[in-house]
From TrEMBL:
Sections of the chain in a coiled coil: none
Summary of subunit composition and partner proteins: The basal body constitutes a major portion of the flagellar organelle and consists of four rings (L,P,S, and M) mounted on a central rod. The rod consists of about 26 subunits of FlgG in the distal portion, and FlgB, FlgC and FlgF are thought to build up the proximal portion of the rod with about 6 subunits each.
Pfam families for this protein: Flg_bb_rod, Flg_bbr_C
Protein name, per record: Flagellar basal-body rod protein FlgC
Gene: flgC
Flagellar basal-body/hook protein C-terminal domain boundaries: 89-133
Family statement: Belongs to the flagella basal body rod proteins family.
Organism: Blastochloris viridis (Rhodopseudomonas viridis)
BP GO annotations: bacterial-type flagellum-dependent swarming motility
């Protein structure tokens, strides 16, 4: 068993999930923002993608954060005639971010991150046990 290989593969998963959580946090932070000018577009939701790569050095498949794409779904329109960003009809355009979807994605990313972290912890324990056996 190659411990370095296991740690390196888990590290790529940790990096990819951390990037995914960063994008989700950005979406959540901008969920209620409006356009900076009247009639302009508000923040558009970002969607992270992953890329599987074959790492020749490790001789294994690894994952990395791929291109971050923009969600092309419609913006939300709310009738708020007194809002400074309202158009002539009184509607304000809000980002196409759904907080519930973002929370579910965040939970999934968190679980994947924890799974990769468990791999690192288990590998570290095996290394420690192996060294203990070699000492006795």
């Amino acid at each position: 068993m190659d411990f370095v290989k296991s740690l390196s593969i888990a590290a790529t998963g940790l990096r990819a999930q951390a990037g995914r959580m960063r994008v989700i946090a950005e979406n959540l932070a901008n969920a209620n923002s409006t356009a900076s000018s009247t009639g302009g577009d508000p923040y558009r939701r970002k969607v992270p993608t992953f890329e599987a790569k074959f790492d020749r050095e490790l001789d294994a498949q690894t994952v990395s954060l791929g291109r971050i794409q923009r969600d092309t779904s419609e913006f939300q329109n709310r009738y708020e005639p007194g809002h400074p960003a309202a158009d002539a009809r009184g509607y304000v355009r809000y980002p196409n971010v759904n907080s519930l979807i973002e929370a579910a994605d965040l939970k999934e990313a968190q679980r994947s991150y924890e799974a990769n972290l468990n791999v690192v912890t288990a590998t570290r324990r095996m290394i420690t046990k192996t060294l203990d056996l070699l000492r006795t």
